[in-house]
Amino acid sequence: MGELVLAAKITHVPSIWLSIQPGKNHGIRKPAEEGLAEVGRRARERGADTFLVADSHWMNSMSFHVNGKSRHSGSYASHELPHFIADLEYDYDGAADLAALIGEEINAGGQKAMVHDVKDLGLEYATLVPMHFMNRPENTGGAEPLKVLPIGCNIYSTIDENRRVGEAMLRAIKRSDRKVAFLASGSLSHQFPTNEISSQYLNKISNPFNEQADRVVLDQWREGRIAEFLETLPTYNERCTGEAAMADTAMMFGLLGWKDYSGRGEQLCDYFPSSGTGQVIVDFPVPA
């Protein structure tokens, strides 16, 4: 029987990729680089063989979509911010077997899901940036890369629907023979400044209220006040402009048991703003 061995809320902001390039911004996201690498180390330590990534940059408008390719390879440039991310090469095995089970379980639960094996369906940067630090042999001491399985985030889904998708993914994992590390790859608050001033906000939050809300959320996560957080998640998502409707976060807590989950999140890097948005990495213990 398969097992969920890790669940983490992670950052993927393009400034992390900028941070490893030569130039004036080199090193600006070093704590995030190290935090992502630590998540990868913990995944291997716990026996994971697959990264299941809720990718908030693979945004869907109809249904839930799973990238079931047996291999992901290519070179990526961000269509959103090509001056931040370009020439990001990748080559990872997929997990077609788990993808099929996830599709079955989401549909069985009453949601609509499709699993794809399409030649030109590439990976998005909410998967690729974390994988660069977690899953490339040159960054993991030569460790064999884990398999990579992305699921998209429907931007018109509800918090409750994403909870049910998370529960479906857990059923699929248990039906499989895989040990899975789940990554909720998305922001906390996600309000961008207007274009005319956006270049001034590389290291600033767009709205002080959003930072205050983000820090309350982090307190709730660290203190195990998960039911309290989930009660206000729809409003937090609305008021603080949640990335991809915070689908990744709702999926993660669906996997973990929703309001019955009382684990305490462990913060792996300091909270930081990036282009107006709030970012962090938090590891949530998986219930026994």
Report on this model:
The chain is an alpha/beta fold and 288 residues long. Helices cover 35% and strands 23% of the residues. It has 8 helices and 12 strands. The strands form 4 sheets. The chain has a 6-stranded mixed beta sheet with strand order 7-2-8-1-12-9, with helices on both faces. A hairpin with a 2-residue loop joins strand 10 (272-274) and strand 11. Helix 3 packs across helix 5, helix 5 packs across helix 8 and helix 6 runs antiparallel to helix 7. The longest helix has 17 residues, at 159-175. It is globular and about 50 Å long.
Q: What is the topological layout?
A:
Elements: E1 3-10, H1 14-19, H2 30-45, E2 50-60, E3 64-67, E4 71-76, E5 88-93, H3 96-108, E6 113-116, H4 125-134, E7 147-154, H5 159-175, E8 179-185, H6 208-222, H7 226-239, H8 247-256, E9 266-267, E10 272-274, E11 277-279, E12 282-284
Parallel strand pairs: 1-8, 2-7, 2-8, 3-6
Antiparallel strand pairs: 1-12, 4-5, 9-12, 10-11
